[in-house]
Amino acid sequence: MKHPVFAANWKMNHAPADAKAFVRQFLAYFPRQQDRTVLIFPPALTLHAVTDALKDRPDIQLGVQNIHWEDKGAFTGENSAPIARAAGARYVLVGHSERRHVFGETDEETGKKTAAAVRAGLTPLVCVGETLAQRNAGETGSVVLRQLRAALAHIEPHQISSSLVAYEPVWAIGTGKTASPADASTVHAIIRSELRTLTGEREEAVPILYGGSVNSGNATTLLAAPDVDGLLVGGASLDAEGWATIVRA
Ligand code: PGA
């Protein structure tokens, strides 16, 4: 039996008041369910409002979409892992493709961010995925493994065991194109095998989420694919009713 993880990446959407309205509506559609994990990653400035709105629903956990790798200092505009933790975050996205491709985040930086997250008691959700050009060049496996190894390079095997990974092909994010369930499974199996090596465990249990144009119409099929342990959802997580349909998949 899977215990699926559903993660909502709101990106740069939902101001505090919208977020509160979202939570009110979402909770009405989604009574507590023990057999799944639900995570929401609001914008950092909205985190406090969502923490407050969810105070009676500790089953729904919150995260931030990015952190700096230093714990504090002169980094104007940035947020650290300890600040995110103190503000109510328990998780953090690391290496999301928009961080990598829009903001030029490097593999090395993702490794430092994962380490900072773990130091501060945040659970990292490490995102990996190939571009269309890399896919067409047959480089999917090598790109995903390079990103995964770099992101996990500075944490201990037992810390890797309590992290999460998301496979998000860049060409599928926000495009309406998804990987086929079979393609997702193939890449997830590559990630799974590498996680076994990195953790030294024969039966490792790191949840591997699929992300990229997931919606209420394709969620069930993607989630049923072998080695797909959950879904990381952007656009389709912004509507409370639609998101509730997905998390009940
Ligand atoms: P999307 O985004 O669901 O809008 O494709 C997913 C993500 O970027 O995490």
Structure description:
This protein is an alpha/beta fold and 249 residues long. It has one domain (5-247): TIM Barrel (Alpha-Beta Barrel). Helix content is 40%, strand content 15%. The protein has 11 helices and 8 strands. It has helices at residues 16-29, 47-53, 81-86, 97-101, 107-119, 132-136, 140-151, 157-161, 181-199, 219-224, 240-247; strands at residues 5-9, 37-41, 60-64, 91-94, 123-128, 164-167, 208-211, 230-233. Strands 1-2-3-4-5-6-7-8 form an 8-stranded parallel beta barrel, surrounded by 5 helices. Helix 2 links the parallel strand 2 and strand 3 (60-64). Helix 1 packs across helix 11 (240-247), helix 5 packs across helix 7 and helix 7 (140-151) runs parallel beside helix 9. It is globular and about 45 Å long. The site of 2-phosphoglycolic acid has 13 residues, from strand 8.
Write the layout of secondary structure elements.
Layout: E1 5-9, H1 16-29, E2 37-41, H2 47-53, E3 60-64, H3 81-86, E4 91-94, H4 97-101, H5 107-119, E5 123-128, H6 132-136, H7 140-151, H8 157-161, E6 164-167, H9 181-199, E7 208-211, H10 219-224, E8 230-233, H11 240-247
Parallel strand pairs: 1-2, 1-8, 2-3, 3-4, 4-5, 5-6, 6-7, 7-8
2-phosphoglycolic acid binds at residues 9, 168, 173-174, 211-214, 232-236.
